């Protein structure tokens, strides 16, 4: 199979998850996420995931590298606790400004910015309150939906595509195999909450992603 087999309208790009790359776990008003708690230094062979690849501070260099490899798109994901703290706070302006800068830098590099709204990086406080527990309700999603619409108000029309959630198959699969909860219980709620607002924002593509 050759690259040309995919056609001229196929978009080649890179994709990343907020916790895996951003680092800066407590910078500029970010609250702890569930991954900050799970990957505390010392829990796994004396190491932790706090720094990622330091994308929060080095994103211009990383975007230049992506461009240098010849990709046409850069798909990032949003960290809920960077945008909304514990889920109870108002929008964190510095978190929103960070994602605006990343989108701007992607555009300046001649690439399409794509955004995953929720890549399983909720605030630890929201989970502790039961707002995202399989046995709970869907109210915990509402602050995130509002925050995304407000945070990207300026740049929404510049984003080529939104994905509601990354790796949709993994949490349902784990829930079924380990009997930890009903598969995909929250996914329809995310779909109903995110999609209309994202489409109204002017993005040509807003939908699901499979991985």
Automatic annotation (TrEMBL):
InterPro entries, alphabetically?
GH, GH_1_N_CS, Glyco_hydro_1
Q: Which Pfam families match?
A: Glyco_hydro_1
In residue numbers, the region (Disordered) covers 155-211
Q: Which GO terms describe its biological process?
A: carbohydrate catabolic process
Q: Which domain of life is it from?
A: Bacteria
Q: Could you tell me the keywords of this UniProt record?
A: Glycosidase, Hydrolase
Q: Name one GO cellular component term.
A: cytosol
Q: Name one GO molecular function term.
A: beta-glucosidase activity
**Family assignment from sequence similarity:** Belongs to the glycosyl hydrolase 1 family.
Tell me the protein's name. Answer: Family 1 glycosylhydrolase
The uppermost taxa in this organism's lineage are:
Bacteria, Bacillati, Actinomycetota, Acidimicrobiia, Acidimicrobiales
């Amino acid at each position: 199979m050759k690259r040309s087999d995919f056609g001229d309208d196929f978009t080649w790009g890179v994709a990343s998850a907020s916790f895996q790359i951003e680092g800066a776990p407590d910078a500029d008003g970010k609250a702890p996420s569930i991954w900050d708690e799970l990957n505390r230094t010392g829990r796994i062979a004396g190491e932790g995931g706090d720094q990622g690849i330091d994308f929060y501070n080095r994103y211009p260099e990383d975007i230049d590298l992506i461009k240098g490899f010849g990709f046409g798109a850069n798909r990032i994901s949003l960290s809920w606790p960077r945008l909304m703290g514990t889920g109870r706070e108002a929008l964190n302006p510095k978190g929103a400004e960070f994602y605006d800068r990343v989108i701007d830098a992607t555009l300046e590099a001649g690439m399409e910015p794509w955004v995953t709204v929720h890549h399983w990086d909720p605030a630890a406080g929201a989970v502790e309150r039961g707002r995202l527990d399989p046995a709970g309700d869907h109210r915990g999603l509402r602050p995130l939906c509002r925050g995304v619409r407000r945070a990207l108000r300026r740049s929404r029309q510049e984003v080529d595509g939104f994905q509601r959630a990354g790796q949709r198959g993994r949490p349902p699969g784990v829930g079924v195999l380990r009997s930890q909860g009903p598969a995909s219980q929250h996914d329809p709620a995310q779909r109903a909450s995110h999609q209309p607002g994202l489409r109204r924002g002017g993005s040509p593509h807003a939908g699901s992603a499979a991985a």
